[in-house]
Amino acid sequence: MSLNWFERGTYTTPAPDTPADYVAWAKRAYEHIRQQQQVPVSEPTPPPESPPVEEAPPAPTSFLARAAALRQSRLAALKASLVTSEPAAPEVAPVPVPTPATPAPELDEGFLWSAEILAAQGRRPEEVTLEEINWLQKLRQGLAKTRRSVLNQLKAIVGQGPLDERAVTELETLLLQADVGVTVTDWVIQQIQAQIRQEALPPELALKLLSGLLRQVLERPYQHHAPNLTPVPGQLNIWLITGVNGVGKTTTIGKLAHLATKSGYKCLIAAADTFRAAAVEQVKIWGERAGVGVVSNPSANADPAAVVFDAIGAAQSRGVELLLVDTAGRLQNKQNLMAELQKVRRIIDKKAVNATVESLLVLDATLGQNGLRQAQVFTEAANLTGVILTKLDGTARGGIALAITQELGLPIRFVGAGEGLMDLRPFSSYEFVEALMGI
Ligand SMILES: Nc1nc2c(ncn2[C@@H]2O[C@H](COP(=O)(O)OP(=O)(O)OP(=O)(O)O)[C@@H](O)[C@H]2O)c(=O)[nH]1
């Protein structure tokens, strides 16, 4: 099977020890990606005229400035080493360079940051793909608003030195502003206070402590749910995709279908949001983009359960492994919504006895705490097993991810950070917190 894009995997390679090792790792990953693209490594990185580090920027004083300067110097070292280790340009007639499927990677600060995140998780540079690097950069850019509006101030507080009571109060305000929610904020503050009562924390350790606490909150649902959500190959998996209209359900189904086909799964979509005719048309367009068939019923206001019935039949006869079911999301009438989702569920349980069923709620991150209230309704109606958080690219409320895991007790399974086919990936608490807090 090809690379499984649903798997987060646990990697065993030890993370690099020193900053220099991280640079070497990034260099190998960069060269590996360039080789995969069959583009000569030589042309895009002109030697720095004079190493940027030696251009004597004003002496950084704060912890944040020092960290940024350190990253810049690593980047300069990485570029320089790439240039010096190149073979001489071959003296052969130019061979037409195949057009790469995706543009050549930029060896920039974003690449280095992404490489560090992958290396720290025990990945090997030879396994890394450009899509992963691009995704991490996208996630980091997506969370930039949250980071800038709130968390940069937050880091400045913990980065200034030992935390006093005033700093703790400021921390509290900032976490609430990021839509982290009262419960999580209280818990984080309690933990931090317990720690600073014992010792004054240097800035680096205070930041680490904070990141660790945020990760703990995001990972709490794994006590009751598996940490990964991967379709079981060779059997039918049915994922019910629920959520209010406009949160990005259809787009998400298209993106999931794309991940599935890329990973080698046989995938099918059931257009069971029959309430709006346009919804069926939209889902068909996404199905086409992802190269996945769509089962629908052309008659107006067709019974969604009947569409699901037909789709299960088609899935079983075609050996489909992942059936994605688009459901209606109107909330005007909770009873109807509940009855409809329950009917769909009954059909699945009857007709696909052995299928692995997931019920995933799509939430729009830009709605912040309001999204959580919608979620309560679906929790009652749809027997939810996880959440997909969309539109992280357009919000300063990225902290809502923490409120979701805390308040709903459900794992975040995927995050969306853009409108393109590739802009959705399985959730990783490590990557999320690094993108949120990353310097
Ligand atoms: N910026 C951004 N936009 C997104 C994302 N996901 C979806 N969208 C946009 O959100 C809008 C609504 O997306 P849909 O997929 O149609 O939402 P829906 O929940 O299916 O809504 P209905 O079709 O009305 O049921 C579209 O313009 C999408 O392009 C995301 O991760 N980031």
Structure description:
By secondary structure, this protein is of the alpha/beta class. It has three domains: 19-86 and 101-140, no CATH class; 144-223, SRP54, nucleotide-binding domain (Four Helix Bundle (Hemerythrin (Met), subunit A)); 237-384, P-loop containing nucleotide triphosphate hydrolases (Rossmann fold). It has 15 helices and eight strands. It has an eight-stranded mixed beta sheet, sandwiched between helices. Helix 12 crosses helix 13 and helix 13 (369-382) packs parallel to helix 14. It is globular. 44% of the residues are buried. Residues 40-64 and 83-100 have low confidence and may be disordered. It binds guanosine-5'-triphosphate (GTP). Guanosine-5'-triphosphate binds next to helix 9 and helix 10. Guanosine-5'-triphosphate (GTP) binds next to helix 9 and helix 10. It is found in: Cell membrane; Cytoplasm. Its EC number is 3.6.5.4.
Question: Which helices and strands occur, and which strands form pairs?
Answer:
Layout: H1 19-36, H2 63-84, H3 109-120, H4 130-142, H5 144-159, H6 165-177, H7 182-198, H8 203-219, E1 237-242, H9 249-262, E2 267-272, H10 277-290, E3 293-295, H11 304-318, E4 322-327, H12 334-351, E5 356-364, H13 369-382, E6 386-390, H14 400-408, E7 412-416, E8 424-426, H15 429-437
Parallel strand pairs: 1-4, 1-5, 2-3, 2-4, 5-6, 6-7
Antiparallel strand pairs: 7-8
Helix pairs in contact: 1-2, 1-3, 3-4, 4-15, 5-6, 6-7, 7-8, 8-14, 8-15, 9-10, 11-12, 12-13, 13-14
The structure holds guanosine-5'-triphosphate.
